[in-house]
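Practice problem 4.
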């Protein structure tokens, strides 16, 4: 059998809708300057789908820093991997400033978030070690654990009682194998917006011996008094052993970092295959990262503006009968009931007739019968944007409830 033959008959749970979805619901093109209002298929839309939490993507100081760095260094410098020929003082400076900001001894720059955390986990574990992790951890963590040749135990999302039971199992096995235990969760879960129960997990250290890794991609810059993350928000910075975040969210850039004790970071520097065998993060991203971190620290009004929009949006949604689940972060999921076809029809209605662009999440990412419209507020949205969105959502909710979308041509085309 030809390896590719199966691709024609089984495109996967998302790919099977590609005939109707491609270019519109999946792989859409947002054009123009990165801003709350952009162009989609020739029309202006109010956009709630950009992970530009603090509005740094088009901040004038950031744009200037990026342009100056590109002119000074180009996109190639430094050439080679960090270990071989790609080390610079500016890489070290950004690492030191990141470590200081998140209250860790050392930090290490990574080229990408997805690849970076996979490599962190892969480097730390051997077949004797045991992993305990939250069932809703991001796909990058799940992919990393697929590479793990040892045992792993999962607990239902934020279920601390189950986490404790899995730690009991993990401890028994680790004692037999002579390995260690790594617990993995997230600071903010990017789909549902609720925080990981870091305080409760840390409490379990009194009963079990383990190390804790958190992926705080959505918490860095948005959570905590200074924006240093969800562990700061929950008062457990000194109990999180491995802190990871990406630059793709609040920093509006490319790259990531991992932070922890000096011995841990030294080990990772010499053992992370994705960094040992990959080109160093380009200097224009490093200098841009330094400017972004400077603004994150020196302009708390950016985070304040973000939360003003978050609170107004959530208040308006709740007053109009919408559920945002258990979110207690800027991520704002609007939870509805309906089929995949109805999700497609109402999303198209939002975009075409109300000028609102947000991401739609359907099965298999969420259970059948559930639709999530995922809103990402930013510091550069306005209260007028919020009001316009609430009015649009109220209108589409009424249509959904009445069955308007169920009989639409698009819903029928999806065959759901």
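Answer key:
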């Amino acid at each position: 059998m030809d390896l590719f033959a199966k691709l024609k008959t089984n495109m996967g749970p998302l790919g099977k809708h590609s005939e109707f979805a491609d270019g519109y619901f999946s792989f859409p093109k947002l054009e123009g300057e990165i801003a709350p209002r952009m162009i989609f298929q020739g029309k202006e839309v109010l956009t709630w789908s950009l992970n530009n939490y603090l509005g740094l993507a088009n901040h004038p100081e950031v744009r200037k820093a990026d342009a100056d760095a590109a002119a000074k260094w180009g996109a190639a410098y430094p050439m080679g991997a960090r270990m071989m020929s790609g080390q610079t003082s500016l890489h070290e400076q950004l690492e030191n400033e990141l470590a200081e900001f998140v209250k860790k001894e050392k930090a290490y720059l990574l080229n990408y978030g997805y690849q970076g955390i996979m490599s962190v986990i892969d480097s730390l574990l051997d077949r004797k070690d045991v992993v305990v992790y939250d069932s809703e951890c991001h796909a990058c963590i799940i992919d990393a654990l697929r590479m793990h040749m040892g045992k792993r135990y999962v607990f239902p999302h934020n279920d601390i009682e189950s986490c404790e039971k899995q730690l009991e199992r993990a401890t028994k096995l680790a004692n037999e194998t002579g390995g260690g235990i790594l617990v993995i969760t997230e600071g903010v879960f990017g789909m549902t917006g609720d925080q990981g129960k870091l305080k409760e997990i840390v409490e379990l250290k009194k009963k079990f011996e383990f190390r804790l890794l958190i992926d705080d991609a959505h918490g860095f810059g948005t959570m905590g008094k200074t924006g240093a993350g969800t562990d700061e928000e929950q008062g457990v910075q000194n109990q999180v052993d491995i802190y990871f975040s990406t630059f793709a969210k609040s920093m509006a850039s490319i790259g990531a970092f991992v932070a922890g004790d000096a011995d841990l970071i030294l080990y990772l520097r010499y053992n992370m295959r994705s960094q040992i065998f990959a080109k160093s993060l380009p200097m224009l991203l490093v200098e841009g990262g330094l400017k972004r971190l400077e603004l994150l620290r020196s302009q708390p009004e950016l985070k304040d503006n973000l939360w003003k929009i978050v609170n107004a949006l959530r208040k308006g949604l709740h007053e109009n009968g919408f559920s945002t689940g258990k979110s207690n972060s800027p991520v704002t999921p609007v939870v509805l009931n309906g089929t995949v076809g109805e999700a497609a029809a109402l999303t198209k209605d939002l975009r075409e007739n109300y000028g609102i662009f947000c991401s739609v999440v359907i099965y298999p990412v969420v259970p059948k019968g559930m639709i999530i419209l995922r809103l990402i507020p930013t510091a550069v949205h306005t209260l007028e944007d919020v009001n316009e969105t609430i009015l649009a959502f109220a209108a589409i909710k009424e249509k959904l409830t009445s069955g308007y979308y169920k009989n639409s041509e698009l819903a029928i085309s999806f065959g759901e």
